[in-house]
Amino acid sequence: MTSKGPEGEHPSVTLFRKYLRIRTVQPKPDYGAAVAFLEERAHQLGLSCQKVEVAPGNVVTVLTWPGSNPTLSSILLNSHMDVVPVFKEHWSHDPFEAFKDSEGYIYARGAQDMKCVSIQYLEAVRRLKGEGHHFPRTIHMTFVPDEEVGGHQGMELFVQQPEFQALRAGFALDEGLANPTDAFTVFYSERSPWWVRVTSTGRPGHGSRFIEDTAAEKLAFEEQLQGWCQAAGEGVTFEFAQKWTKPRVTPTDDSNPWWKAFSRACKDMNLTLEPEIFPAATDSRYLRAVGVPALGFSPMNRTPVLLHDHDERLHEAVFLRGVDIYTRLLSALASVPTLPGDS
């Protein structure tokens, strides 16, 4: 059981605030403390814990609740441990104190992005196990590093490892965004980022020419970049710091049995879903690229979008409802009947 927190506070909230206090902030995240925290959760929940070092100092932690039918593909619940930097002078409270105000808002970096979801996974599993549930499909919880700087030393490497293949993931959930309305946003794809680094050598001065009416979505964009560098003169080169060319879409209709189970569970809870393409890029793209359908879902409605913002915060009641929602979702997803790809 989780130790009791401040008087009257729900133990799940106490655990959430404890995780928020771990300084996994870029550019030097304390991954060691986060992994130790997760190992402790695994021990308390009676789950196996696997640590996969995908790059020096970058460990993917996998907590596993085995299903009753090992021939079925598994459910993968992904979240990232790292959080973006802060400018403390713009915060009302210390961003790593996890301060809770009198209204129940918890102020912390990572409150929305995405330590809330990590704890919601854990607490949903704890609740289901405690109630004596058993499901056909195995549930894996993966906690990855490096997402906030592109995932190149995290999930991008992990999906190529034999340890990932051994998980036999059939479907994945990952992060979404808050929604200020009554609805919940669910993401079935995302943008394909191209980060370009241009190097110009020589005397300082006006070293660029911008051509009107160009856009990254045009197929000739890379040729335009080459042309611009050539036009600028000798000694001007460019390289892609990130170039994603494998966009994938997870179907959001009943042709997709995972969406069918997900959406029906939400309908049973009277949740209104708004399917969208994610406005940025998450680790879901690496999962989809290797054939694992994925949905981005952070159950936070009636909540302003504050990821990466000053005074990032989440109301404890919204957080706790998210635990309830994931409890129902995991029951539905881990009970999806045998599919053609399961054998």
UniProtKB/TrEMBL annotation:
One of its GO terms (cellular component) is cytoplasm. It is found in: Cytoplasm. The keyword Ribosomal protein does not apply. Zn(2+) 2 binds at residues 113, 148, 308. Its EC number is 3.5.1.14. The keyword Cytoplasm applies. CDD domains: M20_AcylaseI_like. Binds 2 Zn(2+) ions per subunit. InterPro entries: Aminoacylase-1_M20A (IPR052083), ArgE/DapE_CS (IPR001261), N-acyl_aa_amidohydrolase (IPR010159), Peptidase_M20 (IPR002933). Its cofactor is Zn(2+). Keywords: Cytoplasm, Hydrolase, Metal-binding, Zinc. It is an enzyme of class 3 (hydrolase). One of its GO terms (biological process) is amino acid metabolic process. GO terms for molecular function: aminoacylase activity; metal ion binding. Its main location: cytoplasm. The active site is at 82, 147 (proton acceptor). PANTHER family: AMINOACYLASE-1. NCBIfam families: Ac-peptdase-euk. This is N-acyl-aliphatic-L-amino acid amidohydrolase. It comes from Carlito syrichta. The gene is ACY1.
